[in-house]
Write a structure and sequence with these properties.
Length: 237
Amino acid sequence: MSTESLRAPVALVTSADKGIGLETARRLAGAGYRVYLTARSSERGRAAAAILGAQLLELDVTSDQSVRHAAKSVEQAGGHLDVLVNNAGITGPVRDDPHDYTADDMTKVLLTKVGYIRVIHAFLPLLEKSDDPRIVNVSSGLGSFTRVHDRSRTGAFAGTPIYAASKAAINMMTVQFASLLPHIRINAADPGLTATDLSSGQGHSVHDGTDAIIACALAAPGGRSGTFAGRDGTVPW
Ligand code: NAP
């Protein structure tokens, strides 16, 4: 690794082998960051890492062992992290009949979101070695209590009780951690409906979908913490 590359700020984006994560990793690499790209699929991850000149770490956010192993690799390679983007996500099922939602549906979706804390826990010591550590939790406007009560938006919220609840949990976790860890800027970002596999190709481009994530990740030192941001500004809780 060159001296220049060792001096570059370091970012890690979870699940950056496709969709919003991949575009986030691409933009951070373009901004001069040395990027760790994590993926469950080593084949897709390798291809993405090769295109971006990023370093691939295999990581399943539901596995302690996998996350600990990834943190150890980063520690051994250079020992610090400036930006962590928690991006992994699944929607879980959308049932036609609400009677059909089960605890198992909820558990599966929440386990991925529990992964945000697993990743934060493992990488906190490396973030705390940075002069300006930042965490961006990729959330969703569907996790906003204000928006779900906005009658003009009712249609958009219908049928997402599990996913919306998981994102509301991420929002609260963001605010709580931002207050408990004032030396780290921790924000939630809402991509908005973005054309990826998760949205079945509906929505704006992945570039637009990563605007809020990049704004939080690259905000100048002393900037905001404990906020919920979309590409058009603050998202109401
Ligand atoms: P995507 O293209 O489907 O990508 C989701 C990524 O999450 C995939 O790389 C997937 O890996 C990974 N993932 C799922 N479970 C995982 C696990 N246990 N461990 C590690 N990685 C896991 O979807 P996306 O739209 O880019 O979503 C990225 C984030 O944006 C999610 O948090 C999503 O909730 C959020 N978001 C998306 C939209 C939208 O409209 N697209 C809107 C608001 C928020 P595998 O392929 O291996 O499963």
